[in-house]
Write a structure and sequence with these properties.
single chain; three-stranded antiparallel β-sheet; 2 domains; 12 strands; 14 helices; Aspartate Aminotransferase, domain 2; alpha/beta
Length: 393
Amino acid sequence: MRVYFDHNATAPVLVEVADFVRDVFLNYFGNPHSIHEFGHRAHKLVEDARERLAKLIGASEPSEIIFTSGGTEADNMALIGGAKWMRKKKNRDEIVTSSIEHPAVLATCRFLETEGFKVKYIKPERNGIVSVESFRKAVTERTAVVSLMLANNETGMVQPVAAIAEIAKESGALSHTDAVQAVGKIPVSVSDLGVDLLSLSGHKFGAPKGVGALYIRKGVKIEPLLFGGGQERGMRPSTLNVPGIAGMGLAAEIIGRNLNENIEKLKKLRNRLEESLQKRLERTYINGAKEPRLPNTSNMSFEFIEGEALLLDLDREGIAVSTASACASAKLEPSYVLIEMGLPAQIARSSIRFSLGWENTEEEVDYVVEKTVESVNRLRKLSPLYQDFVGGG
């Protein structure tokens, strides 16, 4: 059996989306900014997708959606563009974010430090959630942008973004959230969150890779990063990826239509996985609070073993999981997210992220449980630490 439990890295493209994208490639190849019929037909697909995406995240106007190449570009555009605008117009030169953000945010913040900005990194509590009060203390009249991810890609913990956005608003700063892992997995409303900027990526919810978007609230100004033909209201000049954008729009409509049903299904599967593993394997922990959490995500530590060894064992059994973010999984160091949460390095190294999707079944969960139990028991027999534990030494 082959089982894919790594949906936080990327989700399978929905069949309807794949068929639609193929049709767009073959029959809607015009440049959407050309004024002839071929261009008009492509332009309509782009604007339809803009409306569908705006509806999914509760944007008041489709024009608030700017298409990008993915979540990383959207994060860069929000942070760099927002910070530079605020410094130029309001003499603000500080960024406040968390220490467990995706590398697309953390690396961008490190770049901004080289540009003269001061960045404050807020650590999470042991449960994986960032304290609102810690953000409140960090934000000053010099703060340009406050950025907090909506849902952590490794633990699935849902962060208090609405409260952070309110703090930013009170101080006159821009608020941004990286919602790449949240959109398509939980209800997301930019109105309820109150953020000025929100990043998302299509391949996390059934669209092709290489397409994403940045929501920019009407009236909010940021500096563009690219310069050229003036597409996307001048914020992202480039010939648009019409097949990818159209596919993301359709995926947004489909996932939005089935969202509540998917949430309940995924919660049941995730809980079945966790309860079975904890029942059958001692010294097995769920990293982070049980709620508020993405319904599909479980980050678990199996003490006395190496997560990388477990991942390779499961891969040989046809099971795909992860030890950390896909953007950092090539590194052998323990997850920085778990370390920032205060987990000992030994426990962090023994962690595995299971991230389920709408196509997974109870049969697959039970298969993953069986193979995980077999592998953990085998690896623990080889572990001197575990032998000391069972021997009382």
